[in-house]
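Continued from yesterday's entry.
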Amino acid sequence: MLQDLVRRSGRQFEIARLAGISPCHLSHILNGHRQPSVGVLNRLLDAVCASAAERAAVLGSFAGPAPTCRHEVRAVDDGARGAA
């Protein structure tokens, strides 16, 4: 999705400059060789004038899966155990 937005703008060098990153860094992001920070993603989305829907799609695609909780749920012992 981000690649499409940058291509649509037709000015990769200018997009990189506006986002405050090098054209090489942008190329690595677009090719999947680097994972951008949320700040860099937001600056790139600003530079390509992404809509709210496009912004949400791009940010979601870089977010990855939600973490899962690995804590065990244990029953609460109310003191009844051991009572005669």
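--- second protein ---
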Amino acid sequence: MPLVSLVVIIAGRIAMGFAQGLLFTGGSTWPIGMFGADKTGKALSWIGIAMFGGICAGAAVAALLGEVVSVA
């Protein structure tokens, strides 16, 4: 059973890494294509703000959800 769990965790991490690579590449090139190369810095800074804001909001929502719907 521990071996199956380890394989599932590794497969999930590989899939998540692949998906993040696609997301970050697409998320970085799309605004540059929309707004032009002269605004690359501004576009990438807003992408970073949005991504880290999403991570922060996700943690807060998960904590709130953990209080409302307990699985323990």
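The CA atoms of residues 4 and 25 lie 32 Å apart. The mean pLDDT is 89. Will compare against the first tomorrow.
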